[in-house]
Every structure is written in structure tokens, then in C-alpha cells.
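Re: the 136-residue chain
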Amino acid sequence: MTTSGSFERLDRDECLRLIAPGGIGRVGFDDGEGPSVLPVNYVVAGDTVVFRTSFGGRINSGVSTAVRGAEARVAFEVDAIDAERHAGWSVLLRGPAHHLTAAEVEALPDVRPWAGGERESYVSLRPVEVSGRRVG
């Protein structure tokens, strides 16, 4: 097995370009039991990531706070890996997550979850930190 690929740090614009098509990402959050990471379908609107979850689910509870005006910080990661070529990229976003109102949802592209069940809660992440890397 050869592992002689190059390593490149990606700037914010390139990171946002790579994740812009949407798809599958992983959201990292504290679910009250400790750190958790779960896959979600997402879309990108400008520099904001939006995904859907169920009202009673772990993600929805993890991004809700009991303190008015407080923000739950989350991490969001998307990658594309070609294991055969030992190449790929990874993008990490971190920042506050917010529940969206019905009016805010109207202006967004549709997020179609793969998982069954109701996914009536829309969550947005406008990243404060964006980092990425490419190997290949």
C-alpha cells in the first residue's frame, strides 16, 4: 500500500464550494450524554448549512437550549474519499445551530431526508469556523 499523496489545506471559499452541492454530512453535538455524531442530509444556502431532523430526536434536543438567547454549538463534517487512489477531501464547519421558522424554510431549497419518519424540524448552521484539507 502506497501512501505518498500530497496534503493541502483548503481556504473557506474552497471548502464552501466543495460542500455546495449538498448531500450527506455528519453533525456533531452534545446530546446530554456526551458527544454524538450522526449523519444527515443537507443543503447549502449561501454560507449556511441546513438539515432536517425530527422534533423528538437526539439532534433536535442537542441543538435546543433551555436558556433564551443561548446558542448550541455544533460541528458539521462532509468528505469525499477515494480509498483506491488514497485521495479525497474533508471539510469541517463549526458554529451555532438554530431552529428555523416556517417563513425561513419557505426560502430554502428542499432538504429531502433519506431516513423514514417525520423530519419536521429544520436546523441551520452558519459557520464561525471553516477548515478543510485535501489529500491526493
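The helical segments are 12-19, 58-63, 102-106.
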